[in-house]
Amino acid sequence: MITNNIKRNWASKAYVLSAFLFCCGFAQAQDSTEDEPDSVGIYNYLIPGTDRTIKRTLSTSALSTVTGDEISIPTASLNNMLFGYLPGLTPQGKTGEPGYDAATLSIRGVGTYNSADIPIFVDGFQTNMSFFQYLSPGEIESISILKDAGALAPFGMRGANGVIWVTTKRGTISKPVIQFQTRWGIQQPVSINKPLGTDGYSRLFNEAMSNDNHNIWSPVYSDADITSAPDVDWYDETLKGNTPYGDMDISIKGGSKIAKYFVFMGYMNQNGLYDVPTNDTLSNAGIRRFNIRTNLDLNFFDIFEARIDLGGRIEDRRYPNRASGDLWNDMARYPSNIYPVRNVDNSWTGTPTYPNNPVAEINSTGRLSTHDRTLQANFSLKQKLDFLLKGLYLREAVSFSNWTRDGASNWRTYARYIDGVQQTTDQNTPYTRTENSGTNQWSWQHLSGTAGYDNSFGKHHVSSSINILHNTYKTDLSANGDAGIMVNYKYMNIGGGFNYSYDDRYVGEFGFSASGSDNYKPGNKWGFYPALSLAWVISNERFLRDNKMVNFLKLRVSAGKSGWDPMGTKRYLYQTYYQSGGGLYVGNDAPVWKNGLGLLYEPNNEIFAEKSLKYNIGLDMKFFRNLNLTLDAFLDKRSGIVTQDYMMVSTYGIEPPYRNIGKVTNKGFEAELIYSNSFRELNYYLIGSVTYNSNKIDYMSEVITSTAAARTGQSINSLFGYVADGFYDISDFDSQGNLKEGLPIPTLGTVQPGDIKYKNMNGDNIIDENDQVKIGNPGMPKCIYSFGLGGDIKGFDFKVLFQGASGRDVNLLDAPLQSIAFRNNGNVYKIAEDRWAYYPELGIDTRSHAKYPRLSTKDNNNNYVNSTIWKRNGDYLKLRNVEIGYSLPRKWLSGMGITHTRVFLQGVNLLTISSLMKDYDMDPEVLSGYSAMKSYNIGITVNF
Q1: pLDDT, tens only, 628-668
Q2: Chain centroid to CA 62: how far?
Q3: What share of the chain is helix, strand, coil (3-state, %, to 5)?
Q4: Is 832 exposed, middle or buried (0-12, 13-18, 19+ CB in 10 A)?
Q5: Is residue 141 within a helix (H) or strand (E), and if so which, with residue range?
Q6: What is the pTM of this model?
Q7: Of the four listed, 234, 299, 477, 625, which is most buried by Cβ atoms within 10 Å?
Q8: Rounded to 5 degrees, what are φ and ψ at 207?
Q9: Are 662 and 699 in contact (CB under 8 A)?
């Protein structure tokens, strides 16, 4: 509590200080504002992670960049705005639940089978994904992903998985420019895979019961039963067809040579799909966010350059008092015929088998809410020491960021009845309120110092720097993963580099980092990570300088070493840990049992961070002044992946140690094309990009029962299972129901006609775990691509963006409630209509075209294991964004102080092309649970 009060007091004082300096700077800016470009010369591209400046065209690194304005679409999470914009980045959607809908991100696929998290830096300082994903695009200048060894050299032990580098907007030398934007619209589910109704459920249930009764037709539901039974669509009863979304923001920027400023305020409100009012005791799902940012640049005496950046936000989340996953599971699992939503007397229905009436759960159990506060404060001071040596400078910086969450709930229980008879012990109770304060939190503190030198000598340009960074991070147990109670992290990095260019043709850069982490034993805490990158601007050579076809041509190559010291994984593996286990009786007359302790695993004094050797070759090209093409090929050799060494002999006696023995190879290529042109009054552009990568586990110290089932040699998270060979037929069994001789003997469970038949892969005539092989690709796509177009004519503008993924498979058993019929009193879905069935007396015979095993009300270990029966192609193509706008003529705005006004319509995720969607109404990214969302919006942007 004392710590929280200090943080709150410090935060309030920081905002007061920022406001004071802003007012001072604003006053100075108004006194000496000049309408001139804010430029410091052509060597003004700041290499991410350093203080070195070069010409942008002379960069030796592989990185992709997008602006905040380009990605701005109506969705709460910044992660969901990145689909299709950054070659090398793979976003993957996971849910549409407000407040938890952020897509997962990876750079150039996955290069490790351990933590694949990506470090994120905002305005030069590391933060975490939760801070990044709820930044507003209106406060962002650019987002870059850093991909090769040259770009990642400054990050040392935290660079192996790539880095996301975010720069927020800053002031410019101009009069005050005010921009206001607002968008409002509706969101709808992309797709909901609904179960069959009462008729379909009942008829297939009759068949399942008959299958379980030795294939003797034994219906439970008669036609009269089916007609008179309820037919409740739990999705329709619990959810709304659409829900509102809205956001708005306002910014002001400007300044002079003395002071520049950017001030931003934003608001976003996203509601959920639950059909329930929001009040003191009930709530729809939803998130409401308030963003604020103040960035100040101050110049004093042509020597000092100061930056003061304050960025913060408040997030209020609210939900029904039932976990979203459980609620959606109930809607998926509860058959439509079990009971109506309410009894005749308006009491809630429910039974011991199906106790949680989904409609009652959102209307009669209360609400949960959380209140989050996030702040990042950065302060830096640069001294230009040209009076000592031209181009010499020093820079000091400090950053503080923190997040705290409070929570509250109003909860109650309700009674369940059927025809006036109470079904469970639950009672109707009054509401009870609980609150907690500051139970979840994290904080970062960074301190850095830099010395650098930038100068030009005729055709030569030199930029060099060295930086020392120390940071500490503290989180809480709930957000610390396998690291558990080890919530304190300390890290130090000494990085530097030297960039040299000659005549804008030849560029070389050497970068390095020496990184140290408290995660490793004293004497083994530090690693050295060098990188070398080169560029040749071929188009500046005499033989191409005046070529009309080739306007720009640059060759890039890089090689270097990075490391990976993850957070949230097991820590301090060099130390000794014990766990309770075993014991003995002590004493003579009345022995007493005493518990014993044993080693959790053997400690390893040599444990260290993963290593990554990265190689990249790339081409940047421009042809005919309107066709830009970028190509990159890359190779990542990962080694030292922390892995428990299961190759120790079984007589070792204790759990084996964790060692740096894992190895993975990841390789691929990227291509990006941009073509722009005009036809009469139409200006237009075409864009396209593709990223392909494949990885292979070279070694992971696994216990191998079958060579074909080994993960080593395959892609990370490949799908393993059995190869289906159709279904057992009646002809496969004798008159006693026993499997005929000569057929492979199944050991997964008792089989009968209609069960899945598997191929005997190892030839021993027994179907067991030794017959498992790789049967599919991982869920991570091998190929991510996007394409689109846009343009403008006579004040109208438009843009369209498609994004797709290929080379991925999905396992339908990952959505068991939708895939496995009737198990645990579950439901039945469209997929089960393709089941194996044979009741010729009823005209039922699907054997020739069956794609699904026989139905059963019992759990079936033979049928519901990973196999090719359940594998499906997970490729998709989605229409991610459509936007049409109109800018009002300037003559309409003259005299009103308005410089530009644009109204627009915008659609997000409007179309999905996928075999899963076509066959089963399944979104290939979100197989089950809270649906991903599409939206239709209208907005307006006004500049003053």
Answers
A1: 999 999 999 999 999 999 887 766 778 889 999 999 999 99
A2: 22
A3: 15, 45, 40
A4: buried
A5: strand 140-146
A6: 0.92
A7: 234
A8: -70, -40
A9: yes
